[in-house]
Amino acid sequence: MTSLNCYPLADLANGRLEMLWAFGIDAMNDFTREYKTVMPAVDFTNLPYWDFYAALRPASLLRLLKKYPLYKAAYPTVDNP
After folding, report:
1. Do residues 71 and 65 lie in contact, with contact meaning Cβ atoms separated by under 8 Å?
2. Among 8, 31, 57, 81, whose Cα sits 20 to 30 Å from the Cα of 39?
3. Which residue from 47, 80, 40, 39 is spatially nearest to 63, judged by alpha carbons?
4. pTM greater than 0.70
């Protein structure tokens, strides 16, 4: 069972990924720094794990790009083999 203390890391990881896509790595790092400032009680040791977990969710949609043209239109910048 996952500890309830991990959920802030899941939220942060999702937010980091969205900030990265929308505004770039500097904005993601600024967001992370601010989050750590307002959430000092959170242990950030497992953040890389949650970053990876957050990245897997959209990556699983890549297979749909080839099969469904609607997904292709929604993600035009993704290189599709």
Report:
1. yes
2. 57
3. 80
4. no
Q: Are 12 and 50 in contact (CB under 8 A)?
A: yes
Backbone dihedral angles phi then psi of residue 78, each to the nearest 5 degrees: -80, 125
Beta-carbon count within 10 A of 12 CB: 21
33, two tokens: 């720094």
Tokens 């750590």 identify what position? 36
Q: Which residues 6+ apart lie within 8 Å of 80 measured at CB?
A: 65, 66, 72
Q: Where are the beta strands (DSSP E) in 1-81?
A: none
Surface-to-core class of residue 10, CB atoms within 10 Å of its CB (0-12 exposed, 13-18 middle, 19+ buried): middle
